[in-house]
Amino acid sequence: PQSIYLSDYRPPAYRVTHTELSFDLDPMATRVKARLHVERHPERAAGEPLELDGEQLTLKSIAIDGQPLGDDEYVLTERGLRVDGVPERFLLDTDVEIAPKDNTALEGLYQSGGMFCTQCEAEGFRRITFYPDRPDVMATFSTTVVGRSDREPVLLSNGNPVERGELPDGRHFVTWEDPHPKPCYLFALVAGDLQKVEDRFTTAGGREVTLQIWVEEENLGKTDHAMASLKRAMRWDEETYGREYDLDLFMIVAVNDFNMGAMENKGLNIFNSAAVLTHPHTATDAAFQRVEGIVAHEYFHNWSGNRVTCRDWFQLSLKEGFTVFRDQSFSADTNSAPVKRIEEVSFFRTAQFAEDAGPTAHPVRPDHYIEIGNFYTLTIYEKGAEIVRMLRNLVGWEAFRRGSDLYFSRFDGQAVTIEDFVACMAEASGQDLDQFMRWYSQAGTPEIDAHGEYDYANGAYRLVLRQRTPATPGQPDKQPLHIPIRLGLVGTKSGRDLTLTLDGEYLGQDGVIHLREEEQEFLFTDVEEAPVPSLARGFSAPIKLHFPYSREDLAFLQTHDSDGFNRWDAGQRLALLALDDLIAAHRNGVEKVMDSRVVEAFRSLLNTATDDKAVLAEMLTLPSEAYIAEQQPLVDVDAIHAARTFVKQSLAIALRDDFLRVYHENVSEAPYAPEPEQIGARSLKNVALSYLVSIEDEEGVELARRQFEADHNMTDVRQALTLLVHSSRDDLADPALRAFGEKWAHDPLVMDQWFSIQVSRPQADALERVKFLMDHPAFSLTNPNKVRALIGAFAQNRINFHRLDGEGYKLLADVVIELNRLNPEIASRLVTPLTRWRRFDEPRQELMKGELERIRAEKLSPNVYEVIEKALA
Ligand code: B3K
Ligand code: ZN
Prior knowledge:
Layout: E1 4-5, E2 14-24, E3 30-40, E4 50-53, E5 58-64, E6 67-68, E7 75-76, E8 80-83, E9 89-98, E10 108-112, E11 115-119, E12 139-148, E13 154-157, E14 160-167, E15 171-182, E16 189-192, E17 195-202, E18 208-215, H1 224-241, E19 249-255, E20 262-263, E21 268-272, H2 285-300, E22 309-310, H3 316-334, H4 337-356, E23 368-369, H5 378-395, H6 397-410, E24 415-416, H7 418-429, H8 438-441, E25 447-455, E26 460-468, E27 483-491, E28 500-502, E29 505-508, E30 511-515, E31 519-525, E32 531-534, E33 544-546, H9 551-560, H10 564-588, H11 596-606, H12 613-619, H13 625-631, H14 637-654, H15 656-665, H16 676-694, H17 698-710, H18 714-725, H19 730-743, H20 748-759, H21 766-773, H22 784-795, H23 798-801, H24 807-822, H25 824-830, H26 832-835, H27 842-856, H28 862-872
Helix pairs in contact: 1-2, 2-3, 3-4, 3-5, 4-5, 4-10, 5-6, 6-7, 9-10, 10-14, 12-16, 15-16, 16-17, 16-18, 17-18, 20-22, 24-25, 24-27, 25-28, 27-28
This protein binds (3S)-3,7-diaminoheptanoic acid and zinc ion.
């Protein structure tokens, strides 16, 4: 496989202005007829050959302007089709055959259960028909779908239905027209025996939009939340970004077999059923929130992605980073904003930091790739969103909104670049964003070493910041970035934010300083008392910030910082310091002693009234093993697990009565609603319960058992079941698991949870359980959700995945080898934990590397090949 380079970009030789498609559906032999209205691109010379992408297509016929081409008038290659000597402007007709039923990669047209559906982004359309499969070719589409009236009563595609009718032999057809020019990656088709739930939305401009969610019959009761979320998102985008919907129909379809969360096809979003279906008894609070976020994300793409799209796939973050930022802002507005930010950042710092520090690290705008499917990453999405957030903060919301308006109006209907986007922001704000652009081209997480001192005599505080970005593959030397640091100086006497005066300029009590040099000094004057600095408030930049805080400083910030995010972060830092000592103690075989400052900090949290219970729940949550590992120079899996367990149990023993009280204070019989207040109370109660069960406190275990039995909602049931299964009380866990498994055998999304809970348990039998469950009738290697629920969840089970006998690694590698053949996109994602082998001790390194080499010896898909080569480089 060959790399593709951003620097090689050229406009296409030919573009397509209008695309007519007709599908005659059949599981093993679907016929696809395409008529493309083709013309030479004005920037390209005349006489160049027409080159179309096409994979796994059987060509039946081809004609230009109605004249069939003979075998010697075109060339079929491994990648597609070439025709020499085409006119300046012509109609191209092709007729191909494809086999959706055999399509286990779930790209292109495939069957999920009995239904046909498509996934074209990034390069799946080339598995449907011969086409210039690149985002800078934008055409209007007219699509006719023919199916069997009994098996496929519903036939959907993009845009509006314009004609339908019966055909002989029990077949029927529907024709769809999409008036908005789009790249083929936004094409969609769905056909099957589906039912719909319908609603309406009137846009600010008065357009009456019909909203439909299409599901299999048994899921009809699970669409309310997605529909409500959709309407909220539509209103929010009007009010916040001035963006209105532009068709009379908006459809969402739920499918069970789907590689990702969802896909923003124009007018016909296709969703992984896990990202759309909810019910209080089957979905947790987290799932409700995820559905809301994904529904909004896909809807927001209608502008940031569809109306204005990417020129090439190197620009992927143009649509993804911006759209993630938009969905994050939406969720923050609809839920508890501080807790949303805490969740985002804690995930980001665990998973994106690890990616940015590993062998597959890449810039937010990569400059080369082998397989674009490997670049739907946390870096492109989440770090891209952090960059957009920094831009918003740098230029301020009003200029950002003007920049956004400018971007949408200037580039409507076009395929553009990240420069185009940032240029709009620079133009609207008058700011120079040249240095800022380095965030897009430079991989790796910048580290800031900070120190400060208070000058009592002059009432000044001197803060020194030094930045460095570690080398990443292909980028040994890094340039300084423009890093906005939002900060406060918290007075140690008053406990309040002091006013910030920098170089005579008044910044308020919460200001932003700009680090642009490798090292910079900031001298704050008129600082009345000695402060503790609260740095990078709200995670104002995607950086690692080191400051030599004492534990007293951190305990102080945890109670006094006016920034909720940094209060939480101070607690995390304090816990990490204690964990560090315990990790060292474990390694050295020394007795572990709990840091009483952490206990006191928790005691005070548990005894201080709060109106945001969700934030309190986060503050009572210890850093995860994965996050702790991120902080270590070399990961000691067992020591981390032992230290974290020790801290958790010590807190539970010391504060047992407080946890018990908090539990009881937050039990509620009120009917379930996925609303912030209820969610906060439930998280708090469930965190308290997790402490109690961690020491197998009799009363705590009994509460968990009762919470499971009460069967009030899935959040509570799942937490209770998880705690029991992860404790050593198999006498309670086994019957509960059995009951749950039997009760929900018919519901694949609940069975996913049932799988995950079991294989993430810390007990030594987790691996055996994985093997056993792989033979369970509800498991299937061809269903990505099942693979994630069972194999993916096991790979996150740190002590068991990293077993010293290497059996965890071997199991993962076996599955990767199998999936490499069936579904390369999923295979290359699944292999990620093995690629991080350099982070572990010598014996584990050898074992992990051994498995990577075993995978490398296979005949690999480009997806897996690219990842393995990077991992072993
Ligand atoms: N744009 C899709 C991702 C599709 C990736 C396929 N390899 C989902 C999203 O980001 O909204
Ligand atoms: Zn997206």
